[in-house]
Design a protein that fits this description.
The chain has 2 helices and 11 strands. By secondary structure, it is of the alpha+beta class. Strands 1-9-10-4 form a 4-stranded mixed sheet, with no helix packed on it. A 3-stranded antiparallel sheet has the order 5-7-6. Strand 9 (about 110-120) and strand 10 form a beta hairpin. It binds S-adenosylmethionine and zinc ion (2 copies).
Length: about 190
């Protein structure tokens, strides 16, 4: 789903509530070592459901460059992948340049999600809380549209773990009517904050 942010010059003035990336401070996050998933991120403050956590940033590369990099990574025996697909021909690669978001691990029962937003004509990826998160909890999202390294075993520990990273969850297909209602709800609830 592609969400649309107000542009920097919108007419809403300083009260604009439709700029999740610009107007909301990044949450305090701490880099930690996990038992089974390498490095990971824990919340260093309470986060409320729906709140913007951090932007997923990195180098924006095309499919061809992505393929070359994946090939090189495979040769080097890399096991950590920091790639996020924006659309069919664009990938954000946080391998060499990125922020703390690159350390957020996958869970089959996550507490955040990636959302794609159009801001001033650019597609950007934000990580948002899908439930209330207490200080000290591990942050996770579902790597469902990060298909790289999909054959890796998942160690998220969730009851209904899908056992592999990158396996898409089986969701009942949403009708366009239901999808529209969801957008309307998200717009309404974001303007209440
Ligand atoms: C975006 S990085 C996350 C940070 C990474 N743990 C690190 O130490 O830099 C993604 C990589 O972390 C590991 N990882 C993330 N979630 C995992 C999980 N649920 N089970 C096993 N490995 C996981 C995999 O190696 C994956 O390619
Ligand atoms: Zn606005
Ligand atoms: Zn899992």
């Amino acid at each position: 789903m592609l969400l649309s942010s107000c542009s920097s010059g919108c007419k809403c003035g300083s009260s604009c509530l439709n700029k999740p990336f610009q107007n909301r401070p990044v949450k305090k996050l701490k880099l930690v070592k996990t038992e089974k998933c390498g490095s990971g991120i824990v919340a260093d403050e309470d986060i409320e459901q729906g709140e913007f956590v951090i932007e997923y940033v990195g180098e924006v590369i095309d499919d061809k460059t992505c393929e070359e990099r994946l090939w090189n990574m495979k040769h080097r025996g890399e096991t950590n992948f920091y790639l996020c697909e924006i659309n069919r021909d664009m990938v954000i690669d946080a391998t060499y340049k990125g922020n703390k978001s690159r350390y957020i691990n996958h869970s089959c029962c996550p507490n955040t999600e990636m959302q794609k937003w159009i801001i001033d004509g650019e597609t950007r990826i934000g990580i948002f809380a899908t439930r209330d998160i207490r200080k000290g909890e591990h942050l996770t999202y579902d790597y469902q549209f990060v298909q790289f390294g999909a054959d890796q075993d998942c160690h998220c520990g969730a009851d209904r773990c899908r056992r592999k990273l990158g396996v898409r969850p089986t969701k009942p297909k949403m009708s366009s009517d239901a999808a529209l209602k969801l957008v309307a709800y998200q717009v309404a609830s974001s303007s209440q904050k």
